[in-house]
Amino acid sequence: MSDFDDDYDDPESKSHSDIINDLAEELGFDNEEPQKTEHRTETTLVPEGKEQTDTLITYDDNDPTADPDYDDLAEDHCIEQENSELSEPEIIDQLIQFDPVLPMIRDIPQIGFFEIDQHGVWYLKPNDKKPEDTIRTWISTPLVVLGQTRAKDGTNWGVLLWWRDGDGRTHHLPVKASLIPKESHQLLEALADRGLRYSITKLHIHLLTSYVFHSVSEVRFTSVSQPGWHNGHYVMGDSLGTVVYKSEDENERVFLQSDYMADVVEYKGSYSAWRNELAVKSIGNSRAVFALCLGFAASLSSLLELPTVCFNLRGNSSIGKTVLLQLAVSVNGTQVQSWRSTDNAFEMLAASSNHRLVVLDELGQAVPRTVGETVYMFANERGKRRMTATITSRPVFTWNFMVLSSSEIALADLLSEAGKQVKAGQEARFIDIPADAGCGLGVWEDLHNG
């Protein structure tokens, strides 16, 4: 028994029927007839060879094995319906914007029952000494497998996880199934870093990863390995699976699910505040308008078959260059990155920034020896070919985007520090723009003070 909540009863003193009664009471179903409770207790046991089920616990007066009343669930969560009962995938697709319906039971063959309620994930194990009783073991704070993910070609299978941190903030995480058995420590680190608490007992960790790996659901989500355009969708790559543009013949929510960590997309403020405080005040300021337009153009360049190119705002210090970079990332919610990085890190940045703007501050901090190769790598739109541990070829990263950079020196001057000369191909792909607007106001022409 866990000491995480003083309100819990001793699990060894609870019978299986008591647990079912508690679940029914929490859901608000009438379950006063003892015979129905006993019948329910028997049907929740796992017959040998039974297929895995994904069941929301309900109690129907006439049929104790009836499906969940999705009409009531939808009404409770303010979900509109068109006079028809929603299936489990439809209900969860809408509930993903709210909270999963708890409690629920997951029946995993060869492993056992897992109960997920508002207090956590519990492993249900029959008491060997008292078979009529069930021992509940706390595994983690509430963690729900909302559904399974896979790519359009049937690869990249995984699961979509949901939980809340200690501040009540909701998290969603798509996890590749292939990573769970061999890299379970990475999964646990990612969950803990985002506020999930779990038992650190070795057996309990094994049960938690088994619960995640073996959970099966009828709910399906599409997974992609990079943000950007995919089969008529524009995938932001955020934790909610936001699709800015979605083709009419596709209804599934799309999530970014990759071996590498993409840049975090952040949502702040409102569109009206962005328009009135940033966009409107950029009018009359050519550099500011250019930075904003580049944020939008980067997401459209592949549709127009435009190549990856870097625009560099070059000028003296303290004239407002960094403010322009921050203005540019306000369009798509990414972050201003530094030129001070390795070539491998730049490759990961490029792969995770597909079809959107990459913003890099202060070219002077780049490594002179490798900055020229980085410019070429961006422009060639392909990463290095690498081998896996089994000596098979990894998929090569590809991308298309635009870059907005800032600097006080020219690319040629930086390369000369490493004894190199700038090449024509690099100059064609790295375009200098004077940052100073020439009005004595740095990068600005109109401060809109009037």
Overview of this protein structure:
This protein is of the alpha/beta class and 450 residues long. The protein has two domains: 11-145 and 186-213, no CATH class; 271-434, Rossmann fold. 29% of the residues lie in helices and 20% in strands. The protein has helices at 16-27, 34-43, 70-76, 88-95, 179-182, 184-193, 202-214, 271-282, 286-297, 321-329, 343-351, 368-380, 411-416, 424-429, and strands spanning 53-56, 104-108, 112-117, 120-126, 134-140, 143-150, 158-164, 170-176, 220-224, 228-230, 233-235, 243-245, 254-256, 309-314, 337-338, 357-361, 402-407, 430-434. The strands form four sheets. A five-stranded antiparallel sheet has the order 1-2-3-4-5, sandwiched between helices. Strands 8-7-6-9-13 form a five-stranded mixed sheet, with no helix packed on it. A hairpin with a 2-residue loop joins strand 3 (112-117) and strand 4 (120-126). Helix 1 (16-27) crosses helix 2 (34-43) and helix 11 packs parallel to helix 12 (368-380). The longest helix has 13 residues, at 202-214. The chain is elongated, with a radius of gyration of 27 Å.
